[in-house]
Amino acid sequence: MRRLKTTVSAMSIMAALVMGPVQVSAESVLRVAMTAGDIPVTIGQPDQGFEGYRFVGYSLYDPLVLWDLAKGDTAADIKPGLATAWKIDPEDNKRWIVDLRKGVKWHDGCDFTAEDVIWNFDRISDDKAPQFHPKQFASIRNRTGNIEKIDVLDPYKVAFITKQPDSLFPYQLSYWFMISRCQLTKLGNDYEAYADAPSGTGPYKFDSIVPQERLELVKNEGYWDAARVPAHDRLVLIPMPEATTRAAALLSGQVDFVEAPSPDTIPRLESSGMNIVTAPYPHNWSYQLNFVDGNFKDKKVRQAANYAINREEMKALLGGYMLEGYTNIPPSTPYHGTPSVKYTYDPKKAAALLEEAGCKPCKITLAISTSGSGQMQPLSMNELVKSQLDAVGFETVLDVMDWNALLDVARPGRTKNPGIDGINISRALQDPFSALIRHVYSKQHAPAGSNWGHYSNAGVDALIDEIYTTFDPPARLAKLTELHEKMVEEAVMLWIAHDINPRALAPNVKGFVQAQSWFQDLTPITVE
Amino acid sequence: MVSASSVEPQALADMQSGPALKVRGYWASVAYRLRYDYLTLFFGGMVILVILSAIFAPLLAPMDPYQSSMINRLKPIGYKDFLLGTDELGRDLLSRLLYGGRISLTMGVLPVVIATLVGGTLGVIAGFVGGKVNMAIMRIMDVFYAFPSILLAVAISGAMGGGIVNGMVSLTLIFIPPLCRVAETATSQVRSLDFVEAARASGAGTFSIISVHILGNVLGPILIYSSSLVSVSILIASGLSFLGLGVTPPEPDWGLMLNTLRQAIYINPVICALPGVAILITSISFNLVSDGLRSAMDVRL
Amino acid sequence: MTAYIIRRLLYAIPIALGVSMVCFALVYIAPGDPLQTLLPEDASAETIEMVKKAYGFDKPIPVQYALWLGKVLTGDFGNSIASGRAVSEELFKALANTILLAAGAVAIAFSLAFAMGTVAGYWVGSKVDRFVTGVAVVGVSIPNYWLAIVLVIIFAVELNVLPATGMGPRGSDTFELLTWDHFRHVILPIFTLSMIPIGIITRTTRSCVAETLNQDFVETLRAKGLVESQVLLHVIRNSLPQVLAVMGLQFGYLMGGSILVETIFTWPGTGFLLNKAILTRDIPVLQGTILVLAMIFVATNLVIDLCQTAIDPRLKRS
Questions:
Q1: By CB count within 10 A, which of A256, B5, B234, C34 is most buried?
Q2: What is the DSSP string of A113-151?
Q3: ipTM score
């Protein structure tokens, strides 16, 4: 063995001599294994779900509004990004006045000004503009669709005119990345070329990309927020969709930071000295229900299903790596409130409710996927849910399909799928609109929005309309809390779990604070 | 042989049964050779055992293969009543392996059977009729033959989506062209042989020529070739399930079980290896039986 | 001979056209919208329509096929919908990586299998023969993706001597096969992929050698007084064409069949590209990859066929 190693090192020394001078740099490198199947696109709005936003979007670019990811003990909220301040026009509840940050430079050296905001808006809204990109348009449309137009007030002040009043508008801005007008124009608006030379204002600059394999970013010494200049020199992002491959790569020292190790690999990772970090985050593993066609139109049946779930057992299945989901959002969310009912495991009550509803045996069909973004361990978890539901008097059919097929059921909503009573699709609950409103607002009935099962309730609609026009944050928070409590009482979903998103870090990776968010700040990490 | 001038009804009957007799003698010699081929007999026994255990899985399985139990997940071999331990949902692995054999074997055998019927028929027709029909059939086959089998299976299943039926359709489709080709080659060779010409000259109908003369001589090569495809089919099917393009859960299937158990390989590697062992043993058995048949029947492909 | 070659080449054209149709059609037998996974899950119907139009998916399918074929003939496979990059760029890079694996696996398989097969074929029925036959059967019967996982656990995780994944410390861009740091990445994937060819080539060699030994000319050679090693050399020379043909075929199969192994080792080849394209329904990538792999298979078959005919003109058939 030793001889092999000697030979090997001799060989590599020889090889190094042949190849040129040995690099003796003390560059510190953080290598991250992502769950994505490919490198997220680098041209602004990333693909690969929120993982693309997390590692590529917020690294290369900044939106006007950023997320505050420095703390791990409370749910993350927004903070100033390329905008330093925003306020609603007291005269006009459809006009937001936004101050832009001065002295920010793009990675290519140009200055960031109001013109860049206008240009970026055309990029994702005006199909006549040379910088327009149809897929970029599609991927941000549901966040920016409410913008009527943007007026430049001065080089560092703009006004956003919205089509409808939206008190939650700043949240929508936090998903929209600003890319460099200078750079794309220089490249003749050629996005294929730009993808290999992107330029943003973010804490990392682009270094190199090997399509399918790795994206290498280097720290931006001149980042406008000195506190967030990365503490390591280089960030390497590697797509690795197989969970076992990620674990093996960490164990064999090929990467330092692994996303979503599967619960069954965690004991092995821990025994090798890896650090497992977790935090509740706004992610809901649940079922959206059909409120029109099947048995779930009866609130008693919905509540029965929620009482039938033994979430402790589910937690055991996941090796403890989840938070029991009794409500729509994790309890650490500011607008969680104290709902009047709590769906602790109570099979007797569940059976009684079914009896009351006259639903015996209560036949339901749940559409589930074999894999997919945020679906955790969909097969085993759904199997368990089925056995628990059936134990109290349901007769559950699992309609298993692949992720694409499930999206095909999810998009058009219940109208096209009357035979399906619930759909197991994980949702990001990053902001109040995503967390609450879109699931229950009647204007969000699918296919126009995410209210898959067409929940309709005049009281809820009125409350949401009030939220949209309440611009005073504490007052709005009270209304949001009321909305969430109402949703829980109405049992608008079958709630199972909140993910706590385990990550595994090599022992030499220090300084990472896991925020309660889909997004994370890697900049404070040091690699020893 | 009998000269054409002295063909009497009796003689014609003799001639017709001639090749058939020859076939019978041939099968007898095959059986004789097989009787002393202990390796093939042993693995033939294994194949029968695997098939029987799949058929009688409901009687043999000690537990419900779908019944999960969180406190009993990933238990080792011999834990309590679980003879082969439990899987990631605490289901009895022995029961799941037995039931899994039903799906895995079906996916190994059924596509081959259907492909043999379809491909074989097309090949015999192409070989027997010849000319433009042959052209048409064989050129279409050539197009599909131009795809490496796994690529075509993955592409078809990937396009149509997962599921047992789609998986079997794609497997059937990839096996038809090679089987058609084997059948066509064998038929063309037999067609020009003397006794077929003689039967034709004596006025025997096309159907009887095909059924008696052609099939008697073509069936051997086709069957041997099909039998060699069974293990290929099992392997590709399990690969499809492994990629998420084949059997969908909660159905027990060896490839799918390998896929889902893989996550637990650090907790209980032995358990995770079992479905792989099941695939390996079945595949080896089918391969060796096919080899044994081939040498006993002395057919070259 | 020349006429035969020309006829054979001309014959490949309709096949290629048929293959292109199948590749194109495959993607459209799928249910659902071709763009769905590329858009946010809550994209509205109107947004989807707009994007469909921008990518040309609103045109009738025969028109799409004609446009696609016209471009493919000039080497333009369009752009990946997911990454926005030219399909040809991604594809040919992946192709090089897969050829590395396939060629390596076939080379290893050939050297091992030819030796084993010759020994087994020379001493048919001996213990060595039984052992070799056993190895060959295991080779073709083992699920290679399963073997890959087992190898990773042993060599990468437990012994920590070989990497678990990827193509090198800096990816494939700076790949230098001759440096240990890179070479160690190819060991496990190549070994895994070589299992099936080892099995098949061993079996072919064994039966070829055994058969040749039974032919009359071998006795003649012995009668002439050639020593046994010289006889064996003749036998080997006689078996080689058929074994090489099988080897070529195996290369073609591996080019199209490495998807499982590439997925497990995150090897940036065509199989990995294909798997990714299936998951995201990236139509241009799917069509281009399947087409090119099938064409390589057709070409491999053609070359084998022509070589065999060159060696043995008796094989020439209409």
A1: B234
A2: -HHHHHHHHHHTT-TTSTT--HHHHHHHHHHHTTEEEEE
A3: 0.86
